[in-house]
Amino acid sequence: MKQGPYSNNVAPISGTFSFSAWDRGSARDSVAGTAELKTPDGADWRLVLKGVQTRDVPFNPRFGGVVAPLVYHGSTNNHTPLVPTIRSEVAVWTHGELSRNGQVVSDSAMVHAMLLSRTRGRDFRLECYNCASNPVEELQLQIAPPEGKPKLDGPGGVLFV
After folding, report:
1. Is the pLDDT of residue 60 over 60?
2. Coil, helix or strand for 157?
3. Which of 34, 60, 88, 114 is the most exposed, having the fewest neighbouring CB atoms within 10 Å of its CB?
4. Spatial contact of 58 and 71, defined as CB atoms under 8 Å apart
5. What Rg value do the Cα atoms of the chain yield, rounded?
């Protein structure tokens, strides 16, 4: 937990992330988007979303491709109890092609993104455990390798932005 995606092991990065998501029921949901990130080690990461995730992310089971709105995590007994209870306006489970410095790292990276109530402070460390009443002003992007593939070059083997 101290080195994983839900830890306070944080570092500043720069980049952009945009996506479109349509909540049309589990069989018809749709997700598209791209992220371009620069990490403190100087690496340039690019993620191109390819559609709805049909398998659970190992550390974060899914409800479907797109869910909006929802209160979960933490004390709700829904999903990962290691993270604060949050209110999410939109959550997506998708997959995509992930590149590092122009080289494809994974053609099927597992991705979870949420627009949620603020959980972290200005230093990006967790501020609360029950954060559902905070304003929705935080975007989280989690990128993990597919099951059985090598970990990514990030704390806990994932990119957690």
Report:
1. no
2. helix
3. 34
4. no
5. 15
Q: How far is CA 62 from the centre of its chain?
A: 12
Backbone phi, psi, residue 44, to 5°: -105, 120
> What residues have CB less than 8 Å from 119, skipping those under 6 apart?
83, 84, 86, 126, 127, 128, 131, 134, 138
pLDDT (0 to 100) of residue 53: 79
pTM score, whole prediction: 0.85
- What average pLDDT score do residues 102-118 get? 93
| Mean pLDDT taken over the chain | 84
Q: How far apart (Å, rounded) are the C-alpha atoms in residues 126 and 129?
A: 8
Instruction: State how far the Cα of 53 lies from the Cα of 31, in Å rounded to an integer.
Output: 9
Beta bridge partners of 144: 110
Token pair recorded at residue 50: 């390819």
Please provide the DSSP assignment of 29-90 as one string: -EEEEEEEEE-TTS-EEEEEEEEE--S-BTTB--SSSEE-SEEESGGGSSS-TTS-BEEEEE
